[in-house]
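The freezer alarm interrupted the setup, so I double-checked each line after restarting. Inputs confirmed:
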Amino acid sequence: MRPAHLYVHVPFCARRCSYCDFAIAVRRDVPAKEFLDAIARELDTRFAGPEPWALDTLYFGGGTPSRLGADGMRGLVEIFTARARLNPGAEVTIEANPDDVNAADAAVWRQAGINRVSLGAQSFDDAALAWMHRVHDSSAIPAAMSDLRSAGFDDVSLDLIFSLPESLGRDWQRDIDLALALRPEHVSLYGLTVESHAPLGKWVARGEVVEAPEESYEREFLIADESLGKAGFEHYEVSNFALPGRRARHNSAYWRGVPYGGIGPGAHEFDGNVRRWNVGAYAEWQRRLSQGVDPREGDETLTPDNRLAESVYLGLRTVDGLLLKGNEPGHVARWVDSGWARLDGARLVLTPRGWLRLDSLAADLTLFRSH
Ligand code: SF4
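Predicted 3D structure, all chains:
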């Protein structure tokens, strides 16, 4: 498979954030050459072939790709452009932490062909950032934004975390207002979830932290919907907001269910039928590639039931909605009456209140459709 959409996992982080259980490698000094060599090897062993390869989207996620700096990112992009053609207008995204951004590196990223930045702002509250073990403070966010704009980036997304524990006293509306003041083209929200293997999971298990109540999650989600909507953003996916024409194209490919490739430690991919994933630990992934061993660790072939559940879930998570069949409009009429959904022709589109119930509504409709 030579997919039009490719995810590249760059696992390095300066330290682990309190809520994070991703496949990361905490390194003070990033082994950039070793990583780039392994990425080139993975590309050559898994995606070799004489036919031309064209990419619509290339996404450097992590981890913290910006930890590779200017030379590392330029070298990484060149590994791909030496083997694949970027289609005209291709979206090339880097995830960056504010403290890694400076004017000189940002200019190199832009010249290398990166045209979109997803900036991990998370909050503008210094106490909340420290509690999250973020390495940056709030002043780094506008500074990073300014450096990105000077370098010519006109497509910047800000990540914000909501539903923090109430004991932090974080002002969610203030954070949204400060994010909007930086005039991003896109905003992604993450509702804080407690993962048992993350530091936060241990704090909660020991009773040192109390999770925000469900009502606070719902209230903050709806505040974001209203505030960003007033500022001209389309709430186009359960957790994502974009100015007109600025939807994230790479992630939108996931939500359409089309094939995508994934390389790097812990990366997942999907060929339209089978999901596969790489071994998650950086050292093991790198060792395998250096010894010519396939870094993939597992796969899962979607069953007809999986496919049905996935098609319903994907359809309901975006404003493009789900095409209803047969007697389904009658089944979902009460959702429309409850303000959880609306009908757009024959398509069912969830409202923000419906997205708060996405899992249960998708499960309900999947069950109905399967009978
Ligand atoms: S920067 Fe991102 S990937 Fe790294 S530890 Fe924090 S949340 Fe996890």
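Quick read of the result. DSSP finds 14 helices and 17 strands in the chain.
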